[in-house]
Every structure is written in structure tokens, then in C-alpha cells.
Write a structure and sequence with these properties.
There is one protein chain. The protein has about 270 residues and is of the alpha/beta class. The chain folds into two domains: about 5-80 and about 190-270, 3-Layer(aba) Sandwich (Rossmann fold); about 80-190, Hypothetical Protein, Haloacid Dehalogenase-like Hydrolase, Chain: A, domain 2 (2-Layer Sandwich), CATH 3.30.1240. Helix content is about 30%, strand content about 25%. It has helices at about 20-30, 50-55, 80-95, 110-125, 160-165, 195-205, 220-225, 240, 255-270, and strands at about 5, 35-40, 60, 65-70, 75, 100-105, 105-110, 135, 145-150, 170-175, 185-190, 210-215, 230, 245. An eight-stranded mixed β-sheet has the order 5-4-3-2-1-12-13-14, sandwiched between helices. The protein is globular, with a radius of gyration of 18 Å. The relative contact order is 0.18.
């Protein structure tokens, strides 16, 4: 049996577009093979579009590893402590960052910051993203899973933010299609998609050699390096391609389907 882990945006479906038929075919092949499929995404569980949920996954690694679900049961959950929450909010405010604050009941963003973020999406991506649970409010959630920061003006290199972020936090490039100098993600450093994969495998008694991780962004690096077979989409970030075991085609050229076929053949030939 293989355990497939899929990023969402840029892997399962193109940014802001509908699910390709080839993605549905890929998941059908996995089920016919007797293997399992899971999401592995920076989105929180509430942010997953209904169309993606309807594809019939066995569970998922959400919020870049902060929530892990297997067969409908939450097997891992990590949230910022009150101290961590205060520390990272102070850091972001001192740098003048606009924020999307991911929480279990939705993603909080002020109305002003939402308008600014949407203007960036229109400019650089050409469309908005479907993010269920987005809350336009000046309220700060009592429990925070992770933060997405938005820079003003010309922005800041993500490496510079990573060098300054307080201990216990990590910074990765955003996965919504914006230039990394304009937006990034701040997560707790003790969890990644890779630790989420381990939590899933522990539930089934699976081996990391049986794990297939497929992604396209910088926040997929840990899981692609960790899995028995790490796959980068043809449209993936160069940093991910550099560590992948296999590079498939672009998402618009049946890349996901071809990756699944390769993984299944690779498994049978071992």
C-alpha cells in the first residue's frame, strides 16, 4: 500500500481554477490500487473548498502540520500558546505587516488588509482565491494556528524575515502565488507537513518508504524530502524541484495524474 500526500493549490488544482479531470482520474487510480490519499496543505481544515473535500480523501495534514486527521479522527493538534501568540503578533506589528490569522473557526483579516491583499492578488495572480471561512474583521482570534504576513510597498525578502523571526517560529514563502517579497507564512518551527505525514503513518502502521508526497511550493520541501518518493510538479518552485526525487509535468498538462502513475509503477517495480 502507498500513502499519497497532496498539496492543494498548484498541485491538486491550478490557482483559482476548478479541479482538473485528470486529478479525479489520479485519485481513482489510487483507490483502485488499494492505496490511500491525504491532503497535505497550508490551508486549515475550514479553508478546504467543498469541491476538494468531495474528492474523498482518507484524511489530511492541515495548517502545514498543525492539524492531522485520519479516517475522520483528529490524531494531532498544535496551537500557539498565549505567550507564543503575543510574541509573534508583537513581532509582526513592529514590522508593519498586514496579517491573515489562521484559526480553527476561520481566517481573520481586517477589512483594510483584505482590500490590500485582494489588490495584490489581482495584480500578480489575476484572480482571487477561494478560501472558505475568511473573516473580514478587526477582531484578533483567541487561538492562532499560523500567520500569513503581507508586506507594504516593495516588500521584504522572506530570508530577511526568517533571520529576524523570534525563536520557535519558522518562515516560508507563501503558497498563494504572490512574490515571496510581498507575502510569507509564519509557522511554529516544531511542526511541518513532514511531521504531519509521520502522524498519519503512525495511525496505520505505515512506513515512510510507502509515503508519496507531491507538491509545488516552498512549504512542501520538508515533506518531499521526507517521503519515500518526493515529487515536484512541473510548475513547482525551483527550490522544491532541487530536492525532489522526481519532477512531473505541469498541473495543466496532467502533471498530477502522471505523477501518480509514476509512483504506482515505481512501487510495483521494486
Amino acid at each position: 500500500m502507498l500513502y499519497f500526500f497532496f498539496d492543494v493549490d498548484g498541485t491538486l488544482l491550478p490557482f483559482g481554477k476548478e479541479i482538473p479531470e485528470s486529478t479525479r482520474e489520479a485519485l481513482r487510480l489510487i483507490r483502485e490500487n488499494g492505496s490511500r490519499s491525504f491532503l497535505a496543505t497550508g490551508r486549515s481544515l475550514i479553508e478546504i473548498p467543498e469541491a476538494v473535500k468531495a474528492l474523498g480523501f482518507d484524511g489530511g495534514v492541515y495548517s502545514a502540520g498543525a492539524t492531522v486527521v485520519a479516517d475522520g479522527r483528529t490524531v494531532f493538534r498544535r496551537r500557539m500558546s498565549e505567550e507564543e501568540r503575543g510574541t509573534i503578533l508583537e513581532f509582526c506589528h513592529s514590522h508593519g505587516f498586514r496579517l491573515l490569522m489562521q484559526s480553527d473557526d476561520g481566517t481573520y483579516i481586517s477589512e483594510e488588509d483584505l482590500r490590500y491583499w485582494q489588490s495584490l492578488l489581482y495584480k500578480h495572480v489575476g484572480r482571487l482565491l477561494d478560501i472558505p471561512g475568511l473573516k473580514a474583521t478587526y477582531e484578533i482570534p483567541s487561538s492562532i494556528i499560523k500567520l500569513l504576513y503581507i508586506c507594504n510597498g516593495d516588500g521584504v525578502d522572506v530570508e530577511d524575515v526568517a533571520a529576524e523571526v523570534p525563536e520557535g517560529f519558522s518562515v516560508v514563502a507563501n503558497t498563494v502565488g504572490l512574490p515571496s517579497r510581498l507575502m510569507g507564512e509564519i509557522v511554529l518551527s516544531d511542526i511541518t507537513k513532514a511531521t504531519g505525514i509521520d502522524a498519519v503513518l503512525d495511525c496505520y502502521g505505515g512506513s515512510i518508504r510507502e509515503a508519496v508526497a507531491i507538491g509545488d511550493g516552498a512549504n512542501d520541501i520538508e515533506m518531499v524530502q521526507h517521503a519515500g518518493l518526493g515529487v515536484a510538479m512541473g510548475n513547482a518552485d525551483a527550490s522544491l524541484k532541487a530536492v525532489a526525487d522526481y519532477i512531473t509535468d505541469n498541473i495543466t498538462d496532467d502533471g498530477l495524474l502522471n505523477a501518480v502513475k509514476f509512483a504506482l509503477f515505481h512501487s510495483e517495480s521494486r
